[in-house]
Specification:
CATH architecture: Roll
Oligomer: single chain
CATH superfamily: Hotdog Thioesterase
Largest sheet: 6 strands, antiparallel
Number of strands: 8
Structural class: alpha+beta
Strand order of the largest sheet: 1-2-6-7-8-5
CATH topology: Thiol Ester Dehydrase, Chain A
Helix content: 10-25%
CATH class: Alpha Beta
Distance between the termini: 23 Å
Number of domains: 1
Bound molecules: Palmitoyl-CoA
Length: 208
């Protein structure tokens, strides 16, 4: 008989077990510098000489890091719970402040990198924030491993950059394999920016 695979969160699922990382000390500063680089990459207006230098230095960084590329769940990105966005550049820099069966609350800011137009956030960034919150809510509520079947966002006001934002999500109801989640994105004073609803469906055996 084969040994159970300890990398699987649930032997019926193909999703790897989530294991928080203890990142090396410089990892957080590395990620923050990368975030600043992203902010600059989308806003600088420089000469070709500057872009040539930036291109060459970026190529050096790629050369430095490429040998260390690792499979999902091995490196500290996305698993560093003490870092904004769990240390993942994909995730906007939000910190989870509350994580329990009642709700999951995270606080953070959107930055220049997240600009849509007219000085405010790109609408496509908000579903990412909601989806991540829904995933956390499923974990926190100890629901079975699930994937997002749908996600609906109502944009109530434009979302500002460089202003503290709070997202709070909770389980609305459970129907068999289905967990319905609702969440609200607000400013610190409670101003509602967006609200969302999502359906997370419990995976069946063999579903990726
Ligand atoms: C140490 C601890 C710290 C933890 C700290 C955690 C940190 C870590 C956080 C990470 C957070 C990332 C969270 C990302 C979460 C994703 O974003 S997952 C990626 C995006 N989602 C996907 O790719 C899903 C793709 N779709 C699928 O795989 C399949 O369609 C699904 C969703 C599994 C469902 O397929 P299925 O099993 O064939 O489902 P099916 O039998 O058709 O439907 C089941 C039920 O759901 C309903 N349903 C299905 N789809 C829909 C729909 N779109 N609309 C309405 N109803 C639907 C059906 O009607 C049916 O209802 P009932 O008849 O049972 O009443």
């Amino acid at each position: 008989m084969s040994e159970p695979d300890s990398d699987k969160v649930d032997l019926r699922s193909e999703i790897p077990r989530f294991r928080p990382a203890a990142p090396p000390p410089s990892f957080g500063e590395f990620v923050e510098n990368m975030r600043r680089l992203q902010d600059l990459a989308v806003c600088v207006d420089a000469t070709d000489e500057v872009y040539q230098q930036a291109r060459d230095r970026a190529a050096e960084l790629v050369e430095l890091l490429a040998p260390y590329a690792a499979r999902e769940g091995k490196g500290p990105a996305n698993r560093s719970m003490d870092l904004p966005g769990r240390g993942s550049l994909l995730m906007p820099p939000f910190h989870v402040e509350k994580f329990d069966e009642e709700s999951v609350v995270a606080r953070g800011v959107l930055r220049r990198y997240h600009l849509g137009g007219g000085g405010v956030a790109h609408g496509g960034v908000l579903p990412l924030i909601f989806d991540d919150n829904f995933g956390n809510v499923v974990y926190a509520a100890k629901r079975p491993i699930s994937r997002t079947a749908y996600l609906h966002v109502n944009y109530r006001k434009v979302t500002p950059l460089d202003v503290p934002l709070i997202i709070e999500g909770k389980v609305d109801r459970v129907e068999g394999r289905k967990t319905f989640i609702t969440a609200r994105l607000t400013e610190e004073d409670g101003t509602l920016l967006a609200d969302g609803e999502g359906l997370m469906v419990q995976l069946l055996p063999g579903q990726p």
